[in-house]
Amino acid sequence: MSSLASEEAARLRVVPVRPVITDRPFASVARETAEIHQAFFDDIRPLGARFPAAHLREVTVVRAPDLDTRVDASGQTRVWYAIESLQQTGSFKVRGALVAIDACIQRAGSSTGLHVVAASAGNHGAAMAYAASVLGVRATIFVPKGAPAAKCERIASFGADLRFGPTPHYDDAESVAIAMAEAEGLPFISPYNDLNVIAGNGGSLGYELARVLGHVPEHVLLPFGGGGLATGVAWALADAAGESPGQVPRVWGVQSDVSPAMADSLERGEAIARFIPQGPSLADGLSGGIPEDAFARARSAIGGVMVVSEQAIAQAMHYIYRDLGLLVEGSSAVALAPLLLPSRERVASALGVRGGDLVVLLTGRNVDRSTWERAVEPFVAVTNQ
Question: Which residue range or ranges hold the Tryptophan synthase beta chain-like PALP domain (predicted)?
Answer without folding.
Answer: 61-364
